[in-house]
Amino acid sequence: NEGPKSFRTKGFENLGYTYSGFEFFNRVVDRGSSFGGQSTTKGQAVAVFGNGFGADPNAAGNRPSSLYFIDAYTGEKLHEIILDPNGLGAATPSLLVSKDGIAGGQKVDVIYVGDYSGTLYKVEFIGKDFTNSNTRITALFKAPKTNFGQSAISVKPLVVRARNSNLYRVF
After folding, report:
1. What letters, b where the CB count within 10 A reaches 16 and e where it falls short, cover 36-51?
2. Which of 27, 134, 155, 170 could pair with 126 in a Cys bridge, judged by C-beta atoms 3.0 to 4.6 Å apart?
3. Residue 111 — φ and ψ, nearest 5°?
């Protein structure tokens, strides 16, 4: 999202150089009914990715770490979560999803992601949907500051479920 501001994609102002991968989930966006009383559902593939590194400073002079949620077919921005207003950019996330009960879609429960400042985050979704502002962001680990970029977490966190348990370990 570089170049003159007039050519930049609106809503992606925090996008930097993103070499990160995407994570996907399928959500149900419409549980309507069609003619004749038949129940129908409309699904949406959602891609989640970190904003990358090296974004231009925002109006406050910061380079935030954020997660983008986009429609995987249209590229439309659905939501953005700021992890840290000056985290210098987020990498590839790891998602934990569960079944959305009624119509068989998926919902995001937790996201783990690292950023260029060396912080590993856990993002918990308390509400019914990822667009709900009721999320809890916790810094699980903060690398010591050394030289610029030396402590960056630039890889996708490995999330492993403990045997016979609902506990997860993050590496």
Report:
1. eeeeeeeebebbbbbb
2. 134
3. -125, 135
CA-closest candidate to residue 88, choices 146, 140, 153 = 153
For 10-48, what is each residue's pLDDT tens digit? Answer: 888 888 887 778 999 988 877 666 656 666 678 899 999
Distances (CA, A) of 8 to 17, 52, 56, 75, 91: 14, 16, 12, 14, 21
CB 122 within 8 Å of CB 108: no
Return phi, psi of residue 117, to 5°: -80, -5
Chain segment 81-124, per-residue pLDDT in tens: 999 999 999 999 999 998 887 667 888 999 999 999 999 999 99
Please report, for residues 3, 104, 108, 146, 150, the alpha-carbon distance to residue 80 in angstroms, rounded to integers and kept in the order given.
22, 25, 14, 29, 26
* Token pair belonging to 155: 């890889």
| Confidence (pTM) | 0.87
Name 99's Cβ contacts closer than 8 Å, sequence gap at least 6: 105, 106, 107
**Residue whose pair of structure tokens reads 């069609």 in the numeric block:** 34
